[in-house]
Amino acid sequence: MKQLSWMAVLVILIVAAIPVVALAQDGGPSPEPGSAVTDDEVNAVANQLYCPVCENVPLDVCGTQACADWRGEIRTMLQEGRSEQDIFNYFTDRYGQRVLATPEARGFNLIVWIVPPLALIIGIVVLVGALRRMAPGAIKADQAAMAAAALRYDNLDPEIVARIEADLHEFSG
After folding, report:
1. What single string gives the DSSP state of each residue in 134-166?
2. For a 10 Å CB count at each end of the chain, is N or C smaller?
3. Are residue 42 and residue 126 in the same domain, yes or no?
């Protein structure tokens, strides 16, 4: 049973570390200013942005002319040597936080980063507790503990205790 507890703690720590690892990632080195920027580099940035016009459509797959123009802006900014974060800042300044595929971990958006891991941890704790209660022998151990507590007849008349015990034996079969 202790091994199950340690495994649950390990799972919780791993799950809690996932957002930290994701936040630690950067987009890699920016292309040299003036160098040719590939479609893959443009799409790597564009898929982290949502189309400000269409709802819930990543910028890299949106077929509107506006999105094609915005991908062109991204290409130009990458050719100028701007970083991904500079491009994200540019788009959020113009269109707001809703264009970011991954919300920033501040303000109200912090709920998006806190609630899912917290819910997962609570779910794991509840599951481990339920599994412990459902383990073979757990019910019998609880019943034995209750019976041992019930056998404390400190202030009762021994005759009455004997009759109660006889009745219980007769009743339980």
Report:
1. HSTTHHHHHHHHHHHHHT--TTS-HHHHHHHHH
2. C
3. no
